[in-house]
Design brief:
Largest sheet: 11 strands, mixed, barrel
Helix content: under 10%
Number of strands: 11
CATH class: Mainly Beta
Mean pLDDT: 92
Distance between the termini: 23 Å
CATH superfamily: monomeric porin ompg
Strand content: over 45%
Structural class: mainly beta
Radius of gyration: 18 Å
Number of helices: 1
Strand order of the largest sheet: 1-2-3-4-5-6-7-8-9-10-11
Length: 225
């Protein structure tokens, strides 16, 4: 735990020290995840994740997400899921609202360099208030983790790429949307609870101006059952 605390302290210092342009930001992201079978050893699964993200160097609440879902264990190497996400975009005026239907597959990929590589492929159908179009978007996530010898702490590296399939009347642009690259540490506090923290680089494509890059401090808790 001391190693995780020291790493997070260093990460905070680095994020604060990074320069930001008018288009860029330093943000603080928090998340909570819970997933697992409804009954021990069962095939029916439940999923939940919630997020609070703060912009302007962590001073202003920017985005909140609530995302429940259900799944089915097709095999020891493949889980299929579907659910709904409610996204609130906090703004100085009226908040923006986004609704998403989503489907995903989660799966192990390989054992590499003493660690475990896993993947998640998610398809979203996005609906924005004030718009009539449905935005289709694919998200490909890969994660590698390796325990540090003799401890409950792991090195964690992940990347998620977003690709939109169409233009919409509310602003989604066809093609590459954004990328999120993360490096951090995880602490297995109990057999069913894990805490992760670290640095995320977020690159966001823009169809109307320069691309943006955010330097984010990310802290997340994971419950499995």
């Amino acid at each position: 735990m001391k190693l995780v605390t020291a790493f997070l302290t260093t990460t905070v210092a680095l994020v604060v020290a990074l320069p930001a342009t008018a288009q860029d930001d330093r943000q603080v992201w928090s998340a909570a995840f819970a997933s697992g079978p409804v009954q021990p050893g069962g095939k029916l699964l439940v999923w939940f994740d919630g997020h609070a993200r703060f912009r302007d160097e962590g001073d202003q609440l920017d985005v909140t997400i609530v995302r429940p879902g259900v799944g089915w264990r097709m095999s020891p190497r493949l889980d299929l899921w579907a659910g709904y996400a409610h996204v609130t975009l906090r703004r100085p005026g009226p908040d923006g609202e986004e609704h998403r239907a989503w489907q995903q597959a989660t799966y192990p990929i390989a054992e590499i360099a003493g660690g475990r590589l896993t993947g998640r492929t998610r398809l979203e159908q996005r609906f924005r208030e004030g718009g009539d179009d449905t935005g289709w978007r694919l998200r490909q996530f890969v994660r590698w983790s390796r325990p540090i010898d003799g401890s409950d702490v792991s090195v964690v590296v992940s990347n998620e790429t977003f690709v939109a399939f169409n233009d919409t009347d509310w602003g989604q642009a066809d093609g590459y949307d954004q990328n999120r690259a993360f490096v951090g540490l995880g602490w297995q506090a109990t057999p069913r609870f894990r805490l992760e923290g670290g640095y995320m680089n977020q690159h966001i494509a823009s169809a109307t101006g320069p691309d943006r890059q955010n330097d984010n401090l990310l802290v997340a808790g994971f419950v499995t059952f």
